[in-house]
Amino acid sequence: MDWDEYERNALTELECASTGDELSDAHVRWLGRRAELPQALRRVRDPETGRTLNALRARLEEAERQAERRLADAELRQQLGDETFDPTLPGEAPPVGTLHPITQVRRIVEDAFLGLGYEIRDDREVETVEYNFDKLAFAPTHASRSSRDTFFLDADRVLRTETSPSQIHILEEKPPPIYMVSIGRVYRRDAITATRYPIFHQFEGLAVDHGLTLGDLKGTLLHVMRALYGDDRRVRFRTHYFPFTEPSIEPDVSCGICGGAGCRTCKFTGWIEMGGAGMVDPQVFENVGLDPEEWTGFAFGCGLERAAQLRHDIPDIRPLWEGDLRVLRQF
């Protein structure tokens, strides 16, 4: 084998390669696993021939590296000469996600109550019937105890239908005064509509102290509503009934989609219900060993999805759960 001629031919092809593909072909032909030089190196038996062939391979590999640098420099010069390429411009920013609108609303609620001195809790989602119903003074015949309204895991455990059990937990953990808000997922067998979903998030609060009144409750709710919706939205309170509060009220917020004129979202009333509230029923205090003659308190609960829907004037609650990026990118 004439190795001098092999070297001349290999160097010529490596030095003349004008593209990456041509350089790759030259590498395969002269330095690849099946090329004559690597095959000869595998068969070599004497040291002198081995030194000669290794030196030849080193010279060819260096020539290949120089060719790679030459082609890279040529590509860079071509890019710099292209009028559409400006190396002084910043690179493209990677896409950055945003907080889900429900998370945004949750943080607004947390900030509003932390500013009032409330404690934030996040309790378990699987509850016992005792804490979800019994200690909250639900009557044995109350509709919520039915499997048509509640997800039962077995006879004694349910997926919590509201975050109210947190109120019982904290009342059993420490003595009043108590100012607490529990935030988390709850589950109900609701039909999916423009304003209802079987899984949703709820913030529910409890205040227990000496001398609390219904006026304190309304002032607290108005503070949170203003933080969520601003000063322009109207808020009203209606009397209602809940097993664990007496008297009970429901706060409504004027529909921002129709401006109060009436639409499908507000069921043509001009108002959207926010949740429930009221003064803590004396029976609840007795269930946790507190004297209702000494302590007074109020409780309230509202849905975060409903709050996000009202805050952003979303006509339907379902897009908040569908994960459609076309919707979520707007917030």
Describe the protein in words.
The protein is α+β, with helices and mostly antiparallel strands. Helix content is 41%, strand content 20%. The protein has twelve helices and ten strands. Strands 1, 4, 5, 6, 7, 8, 9 and 10 form an eight-stranded mixed β-sheet that branches. Helix 1 (3-16) runs antiparallel to helix 2 (20-30) and helix 3 runs antiparallel to helix 4 (47-81). The longest helix has 35 residues, at 47-81. It is elongated. The mean pLDDT is 89.
Fill in the keyword field for this structure.
single chain, 331 residues, alpha+beta, 10 strands, 20% strand
Number of strands: 10
Q: Total number of helical segments? A: 12
**What is the H/E string?**
HHHHHEEHEHEEHEEEEHEHHH
Based on CA atoms alone, the radius of gyration comes out at: 37 Å
Instruction: Name the shape in a single word.
Output: elongated
Helix content bin: 40-55%
Strand content: 15-25%
- Unreliable sequence segments: none
The major beta sheet can be summarized as: 8 strands, mixed
Give the end-to-end Cα distance, rounded to a whole number of Å: 73 Å
Structural class: alpha+beta
Roughly what is the average pLDDT, rounded to an integer?
Answer: 89
Element layout with pairings:
Elements: H1 3-16, H2 20-30, H3 36-43, H4 47-81, H5 101-115, E1 119-121, E2 126-128, H6 129-132, E3 157-159, H7 165-173, E4 178-187, E5 199-209, H8 214-229, E6 235-242, E7 245-254, E8 271-273, E9 275-280, H9 282-287, E10 296-303, H10 304-312, H11 319-322, H12 325-328
